[in-house]
């Protein structure tokens, strides 16, 4: 049963005209309807704007949204929240926007898992003996990454009369790091090998590391066990990006009184995964 109800009244936005709606709090609920019925206008626009304004959230839009014809002319939602705001302390939107626009962003970096991994490598006797800190094991830092590809693991190859293509870096062969950094191992693996592990594999490797295990367990529970830790953001589907965002939120230790808003969360999922 619902603990409380979030009630919106007088909502006018796009094709919604003076609509009233009530959402149960403390449980899962879904808004369904045919295309063009106003689902996104109600949930992804009006609800987010009105609740976000109460919590002091600034509205954020991507470049694509700014340029979208659907958003022109820009119209604010009219209406108000008549009940339920006292039960909400946080508002989290989990959408399908990419978690990053470059290969430098990946599952491990976005979720914070990579911070724990780098600390484990920095704590090894090998790393201490060489004076390596956790920053040494970041492919975004000059001192530890491959100088040729600058930590990307691949290089752009210019082709005459054809679009450029990417090929593995001839220096690090896709490992992202320089030889000195790769010489340090933890549990028999270097940092590049850890990034090649899938979530399922990593869950076994980091079974005795609570911070890493908690993050990996959530990722596995929502069906992302097949993804590699270092899989670039540019290779992820919208549904995968959305589930990574959800996992990042769910692994937080304190998240009470939070309203989660998910945009088409079943996109790309097999019925068994749902």
UniProtKB/TrEMBL annotation:
Keyword Magnesium: no
Keywords noted in UniProt: ATP-binding, Cytoplasm, DNA damage, DNA excision, DNA repair, DNA-binding, Excision nuclease, Nucleotide-binding, Repeat
Coiled-coil ranges per UniProt: none
Keyword ATP-binding: yes
Main location, first listed in the record: cytoplasm
Subcellular location: Cytoplasm
One Gene Ontology biological process: DNA repair
GO CC terms: cytoplasm
UniProt GO molecular function: ATP binding; DNA binding; nuclease activity
SUPFAM superfamilies, per database record: P-loop containing nucleoside triphosphate hydrolases
InterPro entries the UniProt entry points to: P-loop_NTPase (IPR027417)
UniProt region (Disordered), positions on chain: 59-80
Protein name, entry field: Uncharacterized protein
Natural source organism: marine sediment metagenome
């Amino acid at each position: 049963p619902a603990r409380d109800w979030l009630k919106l009244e007088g909502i006018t936005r796009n094709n919604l005209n003076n609509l009233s709606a009530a959402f149960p709090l403390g449980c899962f609920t879904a808004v369904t309807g045919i295309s063009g019925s106003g689902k996104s206008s109600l949930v992804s626009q009006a609800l987010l704007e009105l609740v976000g304004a109460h919590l002091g959230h600034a509205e954020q839009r991507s470049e694509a949204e700014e340029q979208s014809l659907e958003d022109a002319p820009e119209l604010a939602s009219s209406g108000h929240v008549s009940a339920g705001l006292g039960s909400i302390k946080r508002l989290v939107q989990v959408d399908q926007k990419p978690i990053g626009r470059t290969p430098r962003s990946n599952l491990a970096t976005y979720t914070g898992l990579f911070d724990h991994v780098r600390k484990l490598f920095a704590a090894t006797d090998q790393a201490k003996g060489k004076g390596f800190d956790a920053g040494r094991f970041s492919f975004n830092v000059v001192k530890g990454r491959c100088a040729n590809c600058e930590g990307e693991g691949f290089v752009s190859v210019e082709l005459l009369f054809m679009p450029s293509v990417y090929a593995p870096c001839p220096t690090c062969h896709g490992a992202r790091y320089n030889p000195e950094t790769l010489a340090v191992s933890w549990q028999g693996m270097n940092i590049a090998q850890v990034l090649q592990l899938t979530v399922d594999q990593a869950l076994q490797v980091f079974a005795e590391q609570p911070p890493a295990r908690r993050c990996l367990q959530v990722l596995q529970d929502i069906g992302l066990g097949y993804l590699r830790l270092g899989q670039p953001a540019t290779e992820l589907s919208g549904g995968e990006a959305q589930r990574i965002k959800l996992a990042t939120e769910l692994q937080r230790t304190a998240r009470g009184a939070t309203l989660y808003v998910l945009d088409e969360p079943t996109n790309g999922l097999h019925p068994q995964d749902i």
